[in-house]
Design brief:
354 residues; single chain; 3-stranded antiparallel β-sheet; alpha+beta; Creatine Amidinohydrolase; Creatine Amidinohydrolase, Chain A, domain 1; binds manganese (II) ion; 6-stranded mixed β-sheet; 2 domains; binds glycine
């Protein structure tokens, strides 16, 4: 209920009378329901998880502190009744999540004067992780570390990217993961120049870089890590690029701390990569927050003015991508502290030649 109290404080400060939460991750965060469908209604007078009959038992099992109501007809009829009984004038919705059609149905049917979107504010509720959340992310990341250790003993020339991805997935799922945080990326040779390549039937060849980006879910919380290894021996250029990415990551991990903005954090690694002449080859941001969802706010990017706080848990994932040749990315998950970070990823980062 402490999380719901924080949300209430946030909406009442903005003179909002009620909130209708639709984002499944926010619903899970606020009341524990992990079914992924339904609406959580929150006002001064009531907190109610509205679900259809498929989810009634599930929701009752998970939402111990919150009333659960089964809705057989239209959600907006029930929500409309609540708003009327609560004398609500202004309702908050999540504009980043509601579809246009859902919004239109609410607009036409809900008896309030104003509806405002507060997605950004709601997302910010989840930004600082508590000790329990951090321990779940750490556990998920530890499964990733183990999976990396395992895959190093499996990789050989002739294996396809799809086989590498499948092996990582199998390992994580059979060692405690309930799901993947996102489909495994395994990109070799020239394919590694695409940051989010889809694993293909390409076979690993001697001299390839192989980038593996993977993560899993443990008790709802996501992990995320990337390692790039060489099949065989690295060439001079490969080594130079790898060492630049590693130095950029080490520099960022050394400098990150509470009080910096996301943009300042991004710049710590970007400076290193630019100084080495690869500024144009690092197209994405330095990182993103992780939690119940794989990509949360705040980001570590040139556009992020949010100030980092102790407990925010972010990826640090610089990369250099050279079209037609190869790419390198190294990614850890770090918890922001007052005076630095705590790294949750423990796999070796020295250049591994297999
Ligand atoms: N592949 C997802 C990420 O690293 O952000
Ligand atoms: Mn990743
Ligand atoms: Mn990531």
């Amino acid at each position: 209920m402490e999380r719901i109290s924080r949300l209430k404080e946030l909406i009442f400060r903005k003179n909002i009378d009620a909130a209708v939460i639709s984002d499944p991750y926010n619903i899970r965060y606020l009341c524990g329901f992990s079914g992924g469908e339904g609406y959580l209604y929150i006002s001064d007078k009531r907190v109610c998880m509205l679900v259809d009959p498929r989810y009634t038992l599930w929701a009752k099992d998970e939402c111990k502190d919150v009333q659960v109501m089964t809705v057989q007809g239209n959600y907006h009829d029930v929500i409309g009744e609540f708003l009327k009984e609560d004398n609500a004038v202004t309702a908050a919705l999540e504009g980043n999540h509601l579809t246009y059609n859902e919004f239109r149905a609410f607009k036409e049917n809900l008896p309030v004067r104003d509806m405002i979107s507060v997605s950004r504010e709601f997302d910010s509720l989840r930004a600082v992780k508590d000790e329990y959340e951090i321990s779940m992310i750490a556990k998920a990341e530890a499964i990733g570390d183990e999976a990396f250790d395992h895959i190093l003993g499996v990789i050989k020339t002739g294996m396809t990217e799809k086989e590498v991805a499948m092996e990582l997935e199998m390992y994580m799922r059979s060692h405690g993961a309930e799901a993947l945080s996102f489909p495994v990326i395994a990109a070799s040779g020239p394919n590694s120049a695409s940051p989010h390549a889809v694993p293909s039937d390409r076979k690993l060849e001697y001299g390839d870089f192989l980038t593996m980006d993977f993560g899993c879910v443990y008790n709802g919380y996501c992990s995320d890590m990337t390692r790039t290894v060489v099949i065989g021996k690295a060439g001079t250029n490969q080594r130079k690029v790898y060492e630049t990415v590693l130095l950029a990551q080490d520099t960022a991990l050394e400098k990150l701390k509470a009080g910096m903005t996301g943009a300042e954090a991004d710049m710590t690694a970007r400076e290193v990569i630019s100084r080495a002449g690869y500024g144009d080859n690092f197209g994405h941001g330095l990182g993103h927050s992780v939690g119940l969802y794989i990509h949360e706010s705040p980001r570590l990017s040139r556009l992020e003015d949010t100030v980092l706080k102790e407990g925010m848990t972010v990826t640090v994932e610089p990369g250099i991508y050279i079209d037609g040749m190869f790419g390198v990315r190294i990614e850890d998950v770090a918890v922001i502290k007052e005076d630095g970070i705590r790294n949750l990823t423990h796999s070796d980062k020295r250049l591994i030649e297999l």
